[in-house]
Write a structure and sequence with these properties.
Length: 211
Amino acid sequence: MDLNEWTRGARLAQVVFGLTVTFGVATAQERSPNELVKALQSGGYVLVMRHASSPREAPSKEVANADNTKLERQLDEAGRKGATMMGEVTRALRIPIGLVLTSPTYRATETVRFARLGSPTTVTELGDGGQSMQGISEAQAAWLREKVTEVPRSGNTILVTHQPNLSRAFPNWGSTLADGETVVLRPDGKGGITVLGRIKIHDWSQMRPRQ
């Protein structure tokens, strides 16, 4: 089968199944944040999160957090509040969290810390290579595309990374994620994933359990 035949076949599949496919990613009809929460309570999903809000410039020594000894970018007040709220709501709604993987950058690990997501594992492939907003390698993008296809062994998997990583790995939607926004993916166990929807970081505050 030549490239033109493959392309025609792929387009036909999109028409038949009503899905948009890129890098083995199927985009289903997007669910609302509340519908996503209901799904997440059962476990088995992968949450890919852009780190919470952080100024584009690194802080000076005078204003840096005490433990930010390398003077990396760190969360601003909105980022700290947003990450804290996300964590509080996931616990209140009993959304099970299993594996947590994060970029080793300060702003990403700080996001995990404020959300109290457990004991994360830092992964170089999720990082920025020490270059902040600079380009990400194709090897990193390939690693991320592969990692999100893994079905969680327990709960839901969370990966915290950066916009350039997301843009290169997932061109269809990676570049449009806001600070702290999460994309909910459902791996099928066969190397494919379905994008179920997105949760902006401020949406978590609207999903507290009713008293």
